[in-house]
Design a protein that fits this description.
Helix content: 25-40%
Distance between the termini: 43 Å
Bound molecules: S-adenosylmethionine
Order of helices and strands: HEHEHEHEHEHEHHHE
Strand order of the largest sheet: 3-2-1-4-5-7-6
Oligomer: single chain
Structural class: alpha/beta
Radius of gyration: 17 Å
């Protein structure tokens, strides 16, 4: 249960020197990308070299899986000196503790790749995208920051899209913007779950939205 892992009491209590010893102490960088429910970490590993100066973290609830990602990152650091220093993982329940890790407007990208579907109506409140949680994500994202979601479950894809579409602080990226964003191509190919879906030639449903200032506040 939650009591078995430490939770920082505020974002200033996150020990960056533990996660990014190559940069800290001595840097004023902050984590800018968060991969929520990162699983085995495939997306983070791709992003680490694509954005070598950006600090990023995976959040994963399962202890063994987060330990695996930690080991994976450590061995990549050893095998590739100077690389993968910008990526780390925490074991946590993202549905409870996002505000403990990130300040207002700290993040520029958040990822929700192949989240658990929680099919039954009474379990929809356990979905990682919901109107309530989007308020929280809007808080930690900077204006212009982007939420990336993808799933192979059509019903969940519709749900995530409609939550984002109906939220006043998010707007969809245009087709042109999606094509120009190198990260969009990774959504279906970089993670372990995405690769599994691709092997089975499954369909995917994505929704990519930008954090905006609501029109009644401009
Ligand atoms: N994103 C990865 C991928 O595409 O391969 C993993 C997808 S997997 C189906 C969903 C992951 O979310 C699981 O590893 C699960 O443990 C994690 N997860 C579920 N609820 C979570 C929560 N509240 N906080 C953090 N991680 C969670």
């Amino acid at each position: 249960s939650d009591s078995h892992f430490p939770v920082p009491i505020s974002p200033s209590h996150v020990d960056y020197s533990l996660h990014f010893p190559h940069f800290f102490p001595g840097s004023s960088k902050k984590i800018q990308f968060a991969d929520i429910g990162c699983g085995f970490g495939g997306l983070l590993i791709s992003l680490a070299t694509l954005f070598p100066e950006t600090l990023m973290v995976g959040m994963e609830l399962r202890d063994k899986v987060s330990e695996y990602v930690k080991e994976r990152i450590l061995s990549l650091r050893v095998a590739n000196p100077g690389q993968y220093q910008n990526v780390s993982v925490v074991r946590t329940n993202s549905m409870k503790y996002i505000p403990n890790y990130f300040e207002k407007a700290q993040l520029s990208k958040m990822f929700f790749l192949f989240p658990d579907p929680h099919f039954k109506e009474k379990n929809h409140r356990r979905r990682v995208i919901s109107p309530f949680l989007l308020d929280e994500y809007a808080y930690v994202l900077e204006v212009g920051g982007i939420i990336y979601t993808i799933t192979d479950v059509e019903e969940l894809g519709d749900w995530m899209k409609s939550c984002l579409e109906n939220h006043p602080m998010f707007e969809a990226l245009t087709e042109k913007e999606l094509e120009a964003d190198p990260v969009v191509k990774l959504l279906s190919s970089a993670t372990e779950e995405g690769q599994k879906v691709a092997r089975n030639e499954g369909q995917t449903f994505q929704a990519v939205y930008r954090r905006i200032v609501p029109s009644d506040q401009t």
